Amino acid sequence: MSAQAILLPVFAQVALTFFLMLWMARARFGAVRAGHVTAAELKRDWTSWPERPTQIAAAYHNQFQLPVLFYVLVLIALITTQADFLFVVLSWLFVVLRVVHAYVHTGKNEIRARFRVFALSATILVVMWLYVFLKLMFAF
């Protein structure tokens, strides 16, 4: 597999993170401008944000949990040349599920649906780790 094919899902995941960051900033600035929260409140208590900016921020912060393990795995697979077609397909599946998770999280935020998508993305990531581990240990 080419480096471009292997890294494209990483760039997509990073794009999701930047998108959520910008959306969070816009929502937070909007909340301050609308007077829903003041700078003085934020100096002492970051939990003062209204619900919507908090919801978007939570989705943004989620991008620094499971995806960090994804980034590390992609680098390992790339450096050790273990990334193949199946790895890239699983990578894309993981990223698509992260997009769906962010959509659910910033939408109706239905906990069951959000958990299902999270659990599926986590399972895909575990499978990816096991796949690379087995390929490295047993050279198949």
What does this structure look like?
With 140 residues, the protein is mostly helical. The protein has 6 helices and no strands. It has a single domain (3-138), classed as Four Helix Bundle (Hemerythrin (Met), subunit A). It has helices at residues 3-33, 39-44, 51-62, 66-79, 85-106, 111-138. The two termini are 16 Å apart. The relative contact order is 0.14. The model has no long low-confidence stretch (mean pLDDT 95).
Descriptive keywords:
140 residues; mainly alpha; Four Helix Bundle (Hemerythrin (Met), subunit A); 6 helices; 0% strand; elongated
Provide a quick synopsis of the model.
Helix content is 81%, strand content 0%. By secondary structure, the protein is an all-alpha fold.
Q: What is the total number of structural domains?
A: 1
Mean pLDDT score = 95
Overall morphology: elongated
How far is the N terminus from the C terminus? 16 Å
| Strand segment count | 0
Return Rg in Å. 18 Å
- Helix/strand/pairing class, anyone? mainly alpha
Corresponding CATH architecture: Up-down Bundle
**DSSP helix fraction:** over 70%
Q: Could you outline the blueprint of secondary structure elements for this entry?
A:
Blueprint: H1 3-33, H2 39-44, H3 51-62, H4 66-79, H5 85-106, H6 111-138
Helix pairs in contact: 1-3, 1-4, 1-5, 3-5, 4-6, 5-6
